[in-house]
Amino acid sequence: MQAQESSRREWISRGEADTVELAGYFAELSQPGTVITLDGDLGAGKTRFSQGFAAALGVKGVVNSPTFTLIKEYQGRLPLYHMDVYRITQDEAEDLGLDEYFEGAGVSLVEWASLIPDLLPPARLSLRIEHAGENGRIVHCEGIGAPYARWVADLPRQQESNQNGEPEDGKA
Ligand SMILES: Nc1ncnc2c1ncn2[C@@H]1O[C@H](COP(=O)(O)OP(=O)(O)OP(=O)(O)O)[C@@H](O)[C@H]1O
Ligand SMILES: [Mg+2]
Q1: Does residue 137 belong to any structural domain of this protein?
Q2: Residue 1 predicted with pLDDT over 80
Q3: What spacing in Å lies between the alpha carbon of 167 and ligand 2's midpoint?
Q4: Between 20 and 30 A from 104 (CA), which of 3, 31, 125, 164?
Q5: Ligand 2 mean position to 90 CA, how many Å?
Q6: Could you give the residue ranges of the DSSP H alpha helices within the chain?
Q7: Is there an atom of ligand 1 within 6 Å of 51 CB?
Q8: Closest ligand by atom to 48 CA
Q9: What's the pLDDT score for residue 36?
């Protein structure tokens, strides 16, 4: 088997707006069959990312955490399949038939995807959000395979001021 091409970058988020900006960038690039996985602690911003992503995809209305429903479907420029696999076992997840979604006409966003490693497609955009203070986050982006490796390699450069570690709201 050939090794998959991959690229990694960190996106510094100083507040929700930066997370939403990143979500918008990836939403623009999305196409039928796009798979994006989201990991990170409770409250890291996986759902906030998903909301920004949905808005950029043209979804109208409220996008909530699908923790109890497991999968919610929305319609934007493309269908959006928003999943949260936090509460299920790998066995239960197998019965959901996730491949149907991953290979479907829409975009799949999977919160807590690292809990079901064996069920994920090899080519995907993997995002891991790490807390860095109250409103700061580091989004570790890894694009595995085409076209995701290119998406990550082409991430826009962020403003210099992002690197200063200044709190966005001015609070110490
Ligand atoms: N830079 C940031 N990016 C994203 N969210 C942020 C940021 N700073 C603060 N927040 C806040 O962090 C919270 C993130 O909550 P969210 O529900 O998106 O987390 P989650 O990763 O989905 O958690 P869970 O695993 O419980 O579903 C929100 O209240 C949001 O306002
Ligand atoms: Mg969530």
Answers
A1: no
A2: no
A3: 24
A4: 3
A5: 18
A6: 16-29, 46-56, 90-95, 98-102, 148-153
A7: no
A8: 1
A9: 98
With a CB cutoff of 8 Å and minimum separation 6, the contacts of 68 are 87
Q: How many angstroms separate the CA atoms of 63 and 130, rounded?
A: 22
| C-alpha angle 68-19-52 in degrees, rounded to nearest 5 | 55
Pairing outcome for strands 35-39 and 107-111 = parallel
Please give the Cα distance from 50 to 71 (Å, whole number).
Answer: 13
Rounded distance from Cα 42 to ligand 1 centre (Å): 8
Number of structural domains the chain divides into: 1
Q: Which residue is closest in CA terms to ligand 1's atom 24? A: 42
**What residue has token string 């950029």?**
56
Inter-residue contact 11 to 18 (CB < 8 Å)? yes
pLDDT tens-place string over residues 120-148 = 999 999 999 999 999 999 999 999 999 99
pTM over 0.85: yes
133 part of a folded domain: no
Cis peptide before 147 (omega within 30 of 0): yes
Ligand 2 centroid, distance to 132 Cα (angstroms) = 18
Among protein residues, the one whose CA lies closest to atom 9 of ligand 1: 135
